[in-house]
Design goal:
Radius of gyration: 21 Å
Helix content: 25-40%
Strand content: 15-25%
Largest sheet: 8 strands, parallel
Number of strands: 20
Number of helices: 12
Length: 427
């Protein structure tokens, strides 16, 4: 990659893992971070010559590049619908221009042969270094809590399909959303066991299950991940397991029927689970997002977009796998059949998001989540889930030089990936 040996110096209010350095600086070369900290410490470390031409920038924030683990597309490109890697790339670049420098491309429920084909296509992007890997959302999901997933393509757990998907993805299938109550998912010889064996992280979601069913899956996966984390495992550490967009696509929390949400919150509070939140102001009220941060802590929260093809482009009609989607005022919903004359028009379920991850971070901060916490849940936490701690998601020496520079309102001004400037939206 051209420019990777160049020394890059970025100055501003540095957002680190647990603090904000008001006059901070990042020095990078060879595509890696050499130094990240205060200007005073940088001078003491001998970086004075590199700092000479870079003025203070007190009106900007410098963040690690963002890491999105749940993303179906953007810029008009739908990852579940692409037939070539070239068709998918505009979606990756749309989010990268807004600061998401590490992205996991998500599929939706479809026929097995379609899922295998799409996994093979997206694996090409992963092999090229454009995405980090794949997320299969379905098809082992609840009919009742299917959301935007095609009911005709839902199925019972199949270890054979798990193995076919993992093989097609050529080692890049990172996570798969499953519902614990679906037959064949939990228990010996089931899907959860096969996923961990394949180095894929199970994620609990789209479920109408009970608290006990959710607890059983969490207990099984936690034990399996622990057993797979030994020194002879030979693969990058994954986990802990996640919950796919907590609250959305789940039986609601009720004091007499607590359902899966209670189990997920309890597991997150004790460190056995990290919960996704689509904190875009549409999927969840900002107060819900703030409350979950308060309950379980930022280290157990993943901020994600659940973005679809309309992210960054105009309202209109789109496809999400086999389902038709209508986007109105930035809200994506499944297109419903035309109502009869005089009948109330039925509103379809939410069909993914249209925000970028930096927008989700901004929404969380406006809702009362501390900036450092919101950023950590969009950077270091997803990096840990992927087994990439120290590589991405943090401004530390040796990490990849992925940076997002924003204004005071968290609007992107500059993006670097591997220390190289990325064309920024609106620039």
């Amino acid at each position: 990659m051209s420019g990777m040996s160049e020394v890059v110096v970025v100055r501003g209010r540095l957002v680190l893992a647990s603090s904000v350095v008001d006059d901070g600086v990042v020095v990078a070369s060879g595509g890696r971070v050499e130094f990240a900290g205060s200007v005073v410490d940088a001078l003491e470390a001998g970086h004075g010559p590199a700092l000479e031409q870079v003025p203070p920038a007190p009106g900007t924030y410098v963040l690690p590049g963002l890491v999105d683990l749940h993303n179906h597309g953007g810029g008009g490109a739908s990852f579940p619908d692409v037939t070539t890697a070239a068709e998918a790339l505009p979606g990756v670049l749309e989010h990268r221009r807004h600061g998401t420098t590490t992205l996991v491309a998500s599929l939706v429920t479809a026929q097995p042969e379609v899922l295998v084909q799409r996994a093979a296509v997206l694996a090409e992007l992963a092999e090229a270094g454009e995405i980090e890997g794949l997320h299969a959302e379905g098809p082992f999901l609840s009919y009742r809590r299917r959301g935007a997933h095609n009911p005709a393509d839902l199925q019972e757990g199949s270890v054979e399909l798990v193995r076919d998907l993992a093989a097609a993805a050529r080692g890049y299938l990172r996570t798969m959303t499953v519902a614990p109550e679906v037959p064949g998912v939990t228990g010996p010889g089931g899907v959860a066991e096969a996923l961990v064996e394949a180095g894929v992280l199970p994620s609990l979601g789209h479920t109408d299950g009970t608290t006990e069913q959710a607890e059983a899956l969490i207990e099984q996966v936690t034990a399996a991940l622990g057993a797979a984390a030994g020194p002879t495992a030979g693969r990058r550490p994954l986990g802990p397991m996640t919950a796919t967009h907590l609250f959305n696509g789940m039986r609601p929390l009720h004091h007499r029927q607590p359902g899966p949400i209670a189990a997920c919150l309890a597991a997150a509070a004790r460190g056995d689970m990290i919960v996704e939140l689509v904190g875009d102001g549409v999927h969840l009220d900002p107060a819900t997002v703030r409350s979950v941060f308060d309950m379980v802590g930022a280290d157990q929260v993943l901020l994600v977009t659940d973005a679809m093809a309309a992210a960054g482009v105009a309202d209109g009609s789109y496809e999400l796998g086999p389902m038709s989607v209508v986007v109105h005022e930035g809200v994506a919903r499944i297109a419903m059949p035309q109502a009869a004359p005089g009948a109330l028009e039925e509103e379809g379920p939410i069909a993914g998001g249209t925000a970028h991850l930096v927008d989700v971070v901004r929404c969380a901060v406006r809702g009362g989540v501390p900036l450092v916490d919101a950023v950590r849940s969009a950077t270091a936490v997803p990096a840990r889930v992927l087994g990439l701690t120290g590589e991405v998601g943090a401004l530390v020496p040796g990490a990849r030089a992925d940076l997002l520079v924003t204004d005071a309102d968290l609007r992107p001004l500059r993006v670097l990936r591997h220390g190289v400037n990325v064309d920024v939206a609106g620039a």
